[in-house]
Amino acid sequence: MSNFIHDGEAIFEVEPIYEDDELTIVRISLCGLNRIIRNEGSTTTYRITTGEGMMVVDGQEIFLRPGVEVVVEQGSEYYDVGNFEGIAISKPPFDESKVVLVED
After folding, report:
1. Which of 4, 70, 72, 74 is most buried by its number of CB atoms within 10 A?
2. CA nearest neighbour of 50 among 7, 97, 82, 12
3. pLDDT, one tens digit for every residue, the chain (104 residues)
4. Rounded Cα–Cα distance for residues 64 and 67 (Å)
5. Residue 8: which residues within 8 A CB-CB, separation 6 or more?
């Protein structure tokens, strides 16, 4: 499991489940506020399994609770906040080198 801490504001954990030439599937866990990013490499579908929070995708607020699914299209700017866990599926496979931190 990898832990990513963003400016002391969030703890974001990622646990790989599966990856092939077409997609990446990971378990995610967030506690706090993530920075605004843009994924230039893939479209990612997030499905919340426990907890609550909010994701803002291209300015649209989406409230997160178990069962909610959010599709973040490739190139969209987004961030999330809360205390929740879920599954993220990225197509094509996630490539960290294609994630851009958006200046505040």
Report:
1. 72
2. 82
3. 344 444 557 888 999 999 999 999 999 999 999 889 999 999 999 999 999 999 999 999 999 999 999 999 999 999 999 999 999 999 999 999 999 999 76
4. 8
5. none
Q: Which residues contact 103 (CB under 8 A, 6 or more apart)?
A: none
CA distances to 10, 68, 102 from 7, rounded to whole Å, are 7, 27, 14
**Secondary element (H or E) of residue 30:** strand 24-33
Domain total of the chain: 1
> What are phi and psi for residue 97, nearest 5 degrees?
-70, -15
Q: Closest by alpha carbon to 19, among 72, 103, 99, 95? A: 95
CATH number of the domain enclosing 67: 2.60.120.10
**Structure confidence at residue 104 (pLDDT):** 60
What distance in Å separates the CA atoms of residue 67 and residue 60, rounded to the nearest whole number? Answer: 19
Domain coverage including residue 60: 2-96
